[in-house]
Amino acid sequence: MKNQGVGASMLRKEDDRFLRGRGQYVADLRLPGMKDVAFVRSPLAHARIAGVRIPDEMRDRVYVAGDLKGVKPIVAVSGLAGFKVSEQPVLAFEKVRQVGELIAVCVGTSRAEAEDIAATVELDLDELPALHDMIEARKPGAALVHEHWGDNVFLETFVDVNMEAAYDAPIKVTREISTARQSMAPMEGRGTVAYWDKRLEQLVLHTGSQMPHIVRTGLAECLGLGQEQVRIVSPDVGGGFGYKGILLPEDICLAFLAMKLDHPVRWIEDRREHLTAGANCREHHYIITGYADRDGKLRGIECEATVDSGAYSSYPFSACLEAAQIASILPGPYDFPSYRCRTWSVSTNKCPILPYRGVARTGVCYALELVLDAIAREAGIEPHEVRLKNLVQPEQMPFDNITRKHFDSGDYPEALHRAMAAIDLAGIRARQQQGEPDGRLIGIGHSIYCEQGAHGTSVYAGWGIPMVPGHEQATARMTPDGGLEIRVGVHSHGQSMETTLPQVANEILGIDTAKIKLVHGDTEYTPYSTGSWGSRCAVMAGGAVATAAREVAGLAKGIGAHLLQADVADVKLVDGHVVGPHGSVSLETVAFTWYRRPQDLPASVDPRGLESTIGYKPVRDSGTFSYAAHAVVVAVDPEMGDIEILDYVIVEDGGKLINPMVVDGQIYGGLAQGIGTALYEEMNFDASGQPLASTFADYLLPGPTEVPAPRVDHMETLAPYTEFGVKGIGEGGAIAPPAAIGNAVNDALRRFGAELLHSPMTPRRVLEAIQAAKTASAASQVKQGEFA
Amino acid sequence: MKPVNFDYARPADVGAVLALLAEDGPSVKLMAGGQSLGPMLNMRLVQPDLLVDIAAIDELKQVTDKGDAIVFGACITHADIEDRRVPDVTHGALPRVANGIAYRAVRNRGTVGGSLTHADPSADWISMLSAVGARVTLRGPSGERTIAVEDYMLGALEADLRPGEMLVSATVPKLGRSARWGYYKSCRKTGEFAHAIGAFLADPDRGVCRVVIGATESRPIVVADASRLLGDGTAARLEQVFDSAAADEIVAAAGMEDPLDRQTHVVALRRAIERAHSA
Ligand SMILES: Cc1cc2nc3c(=O)[nH]c(=O)nc-3n(C[C@H](O)[C@H](O)[C@H](O)COP(=O)(O)OP(=O)(O)OC[C@H]3O[C@@H](n4cnc5c(N)ncnc54)[C@H](O)[C@@H]3O)c2cc1C
Asked: What's this model's pTM, rounded to 2 decimal places?
């Protein structure tokens, strides 16, 4: 048999159906009698609801807050001291706090008819001052999103480690840096089909979800149902990136209607709803200072970071995760002695900010890495020299950094060396000296990050949010013909788990992956799990599958030994066969015997059969640390402001790669999103809190011609605490690009003394930065003239 | 985002379309390729009672050679021009511009008539057809009239379409042998609408030297006599005679106040001139 185990670059099992257009998504589901819903959403960012008028003839087709008897609001608390609790109503009453907030739900025979009905509902809203700027919202006297709080701060955190010791550093560089609000934009938006199963007395929700079990828990709690009365089925998921882990008010509305009405109901999110009402993320603001010695050695980092968390704390990650994480991850992969960081999660009249691939890391990487380059320019040395002076060294591993993050393994300087060699720093510097025939300016930049993945109980218990991952469980069960079923509670939304988890089982049992079936995406059939998030599936579900497969291997050896008339201590499992001193028996025969010829087994046979459900945790659950160095060459058009990526290199260390091709795929996808953050994607709002991008004509995503083919190099430093040495890598591709590209652009614009500090780096912002630098240098020349 | 309920008609000829347009009462919307109208219907920015699909009308797909010009029907698609099913009389100008519109899927359906009538300032045809001196013919209850392309566009998303009228054809003059043209558009990604467009045509045989600056807030800026910018249009390297400062003045006089916007538009024009194509 061809190698199909851990480390094999197998073609994906799921591709056959996806490439033939045979994927099954929520919107593909057709149930008898199913009706469509459309929502009446708030057109204003902040208003008091004075009245909702429903025409009499529509009264039985429209439901408002008052109809939702017994339905609780969505509450996602954090246990962090001082966290202020928001209640996200399922349908708004008294007040609306964001454009797009649900006010009424309308049921029609088609979506178009439901929209017709929605258009007959009249809203009487008294507009209130809206908060669209998180820095303004933090100030005393600002309008209040949640009046009883007294201010607009969900949570403020503060950490200080000997900051003052750095204040005498000869280099001190302060920058105001920010990343735009974005929308997550998976190809498939959200969608839910719900009905009440009368026979099973169960609410069934088909919804593309990364975290079906968490949605079940949250939904049951809001509806006051027992969890056995709720079943979540997550079919194929067309991308999630975090958005499909969230419990939405829409889901609860659909569930409520399913219980109230005698037919299934369906909501398929459209792109306008997606962009304006739901899937926002990323908006960070930093005032950050780097202190360093003349040789670039970091003395300390001081930072004030603000995150626009939007109107509500969303379930289950809460409004604190993004900003509070900034404080703990800002130091990145660097070793320095002094640190201070204050963070604010601020409530505004925008939709809740949700965790998006990379979560806080993309913003943190952008802020820190831009400052490191600014330090390099100040010190007059190459940026990578500054990094080499400060990166954690391989001989320090495992290493606890200044915020007590436990770096498990790795050689960060080596990744950087390889990246600089591949991108040809010397060659690019020479090319810059010559200049380009077309007048464009070449810039080279890089960035490094670390990605904590699969962090578990010890980390999440501290956040005190509704969800804390414990042991990850899997079931492995042989079938009567010698195949294997694997059941896991995580769900694939593009991670290729139908391929990689069978590879893990194959590694241990030797069963052909064609005969290994992954069962996932249904709470009815799978063990409880917090689901797919935080780069955890390969580590946690992979570890659980390995553990369960090992149990099954032991059980199979017991039966095989009996059939071989050997002592179990004398048999081994080799290539799908139980091999004894005098012969071997295939797993097919072992399975056939257990299921179909039990008469051949002794009374003492292990009654667990050929099945195991068991939990797994790494030896330490503080998370795996994968990392990468990204290096990029850009050409900037100083007249038009356009930026073109000429070359892109990624050197990544993901520990043991279960399937290197799948890892590359994750990196490519992440890179595309990182380029979106760097150059294109931006959710703008006007002063009244109106979102300005409601279609993809206004919200630009990179397309195939905007994403270069990166050159990817892998290091494989095994993780010391996990099965096979696997590290989580799902998010990394999206973390480093804005920083690397930003540094490259600033390198290109160095001759003007211009710097870009806000992403996306649009043509307009490039031209403005050049113009501002020219104006400043003209002003300083005038000044020098005055004193001459 | 689903359209309101509407009726649908697919008449066989222009006369039948005009009859439907003449009817009192229902609000009627013509649909050609549907590439702009489709999204507007879905977003309910347009809520017609009757949608009249004109894409299958033979007359609107015809191409006629008039000797000094070529006339093609309103429903000729961008792809028809790109693939030269419409004979090229512009030294490659129109096929080249067609090739740069959106993506192939859009070009297969989107029509010249629809693009001009939709009147998006950042669209390609309004700028390039103005540069080559094209005219459009409208037919309505009181007969036909033919006007310059640039006059058909009244402002952003507003065409000079009188009640009961439709656009039936466009007329593109054949360029002289020594004619040169250039086109440059600045957009952030493939298939995105332009943020600045520059176009020029220097056709000394016919005494034409025109310049167009497009993707403005409204109608493109058409300089029918570009001698102030390009002299008599015969210089071997036109970019050497091009007067950027004069172009900036023209753009400013047209009401473009933002200096960076003016910069990108003037640069777009300069690059169009630098990239001059000839026969
Ligand atoms: C993703 C995407 C990207 C695009 N990118 C570009 C681009 O880069 N450059 C560019 O120039 N365009 C671009 N477009 C627009 C595209 O070129 C459309 O084809 C064009 O705007 C409309 O042509 P249509 O035939 O589809 O018209 P329709 O959408 O059918 O109609 C548009 C309007 O014109 C009216 N109309 C149509 N035909 C007539 C007629 N004969 N007489 C009177 N009224 C008429 C309709 O009633 C309607 O109001 C893009 C479109 C999309 C969807």
From this structure: 0.97
